[in-house]
Automatic annotation (TrEMBL):
TM stretches of this protein: none
Organism: Devosia insulae DS-56
Subcellular location: Bacterial flagellum basal body
Name listed for the protein in its UniProt record: Flagellar basal-body rod protein FlgG
Family to which the UniProt record says this protein belongs: Belongs to the flagella basal body rod proteins family.
Boundaries of every Flagellar hook protein FlgE/F/G-like D1 domain copy: 96-159
GO cellular component: bacterial-type flagellum basal body, distal rod
A Gene Ontology biological process term: bacterial-type flagellum-dependent swarming motility
Keywords, alphabetical: Bacterial flagellum, Cell projection, Cilium, Flagellum
Domain Flagellar basal body rod protein N-terminal residues, every copy: 4-34
Broad class of where this protein is predominantly found: other
Oligomeric and partner information: The basal body constitutes a major portion of the flagellar organelle and consists of four rings (L,P,S, and M) mounted on a central rod. The rod consists of about 26 subunits of FlgG in the distal portion, and FlgB, FlgC and FlgF are thought to build up the proximal portion of the rod with about 6 subunits each.
Ranges for domain Flagellar basal-body/hook protein C-terminal: 216-260
Amino acid sequence: MKALYIASTGMAAQERNVEVISNNIANMRTTGYKRARAEFQDLLYQVQRQAGSTTSETGTMAPVGIEVGSGVRTAATPRVMSQGTVAPTEKELDLAIRGEGFFVVQMPDGRTGYTRDGSFERSPEGQLVNVDGYEIQPGITIPGNANSVSISPDGTVEVFLDNDTTPTTVGQLQLARFVNKAGLSSAGNNLFVETASSGPAQIGTPNQDGMGDLLQEYLEASNVNSVTEIADLIAAQRAYEMNARVISGADEMMQSASQLR
């Protein structure tokens, strides 16, 4: 019975939906995390009568057709790239992006990564790096005798050396933006990499040409909404149960047919 296979695709789709939701909930406290959303498409249809087909010798046509679907499949799990809540941290190397853009990170395998996670540290050589030690691009080195670091909204990095009363500029942070940022591929460790779908990175200065500005001593939280995720989880569970009930119903119908004498 075809209903068995149709309902099984529904169960598989809702299982994938729950996996996506569970990953969102698991990353509720992940800095700069962007929630994902499962999207679905219906499968091919078996057409038993085409709408508009001739129904008599006089040329009358069927106003509607007869189509039986084959179920559902997961079409995509795009990221929702909305702004997360910005919260103070009182740590001078923490940065939050308010608006468009990603920090640029040099990954160990030579690829360029992009992130909204501004939890930065100093390497033993004084370079500005992320929590995994990956260097932020363009490279910025903070002298060992720097008493404090100041990062302006446009990404200018200044330090006060020893007893100096005027700051010294040591670098300029830049941001990257994409035509289709939802097309970025997740690389783990709060990093994305560009794809053919995302388009090439457009590098620019913060607070200029549509780029967001930077907030020092702040971090961007995850954009996961716990209430939305729980509501979506309940809806996915109920959809899974209904598909399971369809399988049970189809099985009972087949059992009744097999008992006919």
